[in-house]
Amino acid sequence: MKIQPIVHKTLAEAVAGKLTASLLDGSLQPGTQLPPERELITRFGISRTTLREALKTLEKDGFVEARKNVGWFARRIDESNMTQAREMSGPARQAERSARSEPPTGPIRLPIASEKPIHIPNLQKDRFGTFDFISWWDREKVQNAKVMVVGAGALGNEVIKNLALMGIGNIFIVDFDKIEMANLSRSVLFRETDNNRSKAEIAAARAKSVNPNVHVQYLNGDIMTKLGLGVFRRMDVVIGCLDNREARLAVNRFCYWINKPWVDGAIQELLGLVRVFVPGQGACYECTLTEQALRDLSLRYSCPLLARQNILLGKVPTTPTIASIIGAMQSQEALKLINNMPVEPGKVTHFNGMVNEMHTTAYSPREDCASHWTYGDVTELPARAERTTLDDILRIACADLGLNAVIELDQELVTRLECSTCHTVEEILRPLSEVTFDAGRCPICGELRETFLTHVITGEEPYLHRTLASVGVPPLHIIRAHNDEEYRFYELTGDLMDALHFRDYESTIKLAVEKPARIRIKDKIHVNATKETPVLKVRSSRIRLRD
Question: HSE on the CB side for 89, CA within 13 Å?
């Protein structure tokens, strides 16, 4: 008996086969327009990414064509591609014949129950072995997935723990806060000895201890100013575990700009909600905000520093039980996105722990939503934020777009503070989110100073010599420039190796969860290194790093 290998088709290939079968049986006539993408996504129960992959395959084989700003249209199948069409549509046509109880043509073959290859795991040695029994589980996709968790509080703890248990291969954790004793009542990853330490750092270390096979990286900083868009660009899913609207709005815009899905969660006492946002599919987070909320979040106030302070006030009480429930739901939605399972973007699922009720509601997309904009092709530059000046990036933009090109910053830049009483001026050049309300008061007379802002670099500024990092541009960021007609997008790809590596705690976990021991450095120590690593030289207790 000759055993043939089992062919495992991807979901995109299966969809392409069904569409090709419709061309062959005449239900989709040549020249007719395919249903809208949103309708096809609903019919097939797939994600937009999967549908696009299927349509690109059909376009490559000459079965459909894309017409800009119109849609997809069917093409005629002739002798040149008839064989390819039959091979591609074979499984789909066979399934439809079975559904209509029609006798199959040709030799009878035993059906295969699942498209997934048969694999019997070793449950004694394989910690993820039972997951292989799940029909839709794709171990390779899960292990290669890159997931960012923004916020490492009670909700973030549950999400990070779940991701590590599920074997998500690469986890990036971002938080700017420190651990306090009150966090211990609802944060499964924190201990009493962690008091006053970085939430992101400890959460990353504990995720590594939960599952040593995962790769982790953490950033102790503000998501709005310390993380470049290039990091978002390389993620598969972003999970928001945040407690303020300003940060949520920033994550929403970042994800929409670079076309990445994100899962939002919120909790209060015994109440919680989960929602998935996918660019181009239903409403986004900004669509859900009321007019009053949008006014509160506006950056152009007569007193913008006070407006920001009011936005960030007011943490809400939560319980560990609701954090577990909502965190589990968020992790599950992320897992579905990674495995190309159907999700419901633009909808919110509410959970009421008071009466144990759950319901799902759809948001209405806003046609004038400011977040609904996706970047075009990104030009990768061998540039770094710490070395590249505003003038450098503006010169590149002018070479591509003409002399009237300008650089557009993601948020307002506080250029200076002026006191109308003392007539003193203080140069700032920092993003608005990094300037506190207290900093707005005059250090001499105590009066509130006038704030001067800008978000455009035209080439006439006296600070063009300043580096991008010095004015708040994070490593691996994507800078946008435009003239009167078009935009260009430039990534600081020179920062890639340092900004995104997933190598934290690769050698040991103890370094993150225990206080480091004191190290005495003696004089005249030489440490040789390879060409790729810095060379450490110590003389007279002085340390120098050189490339």
Answer: 21
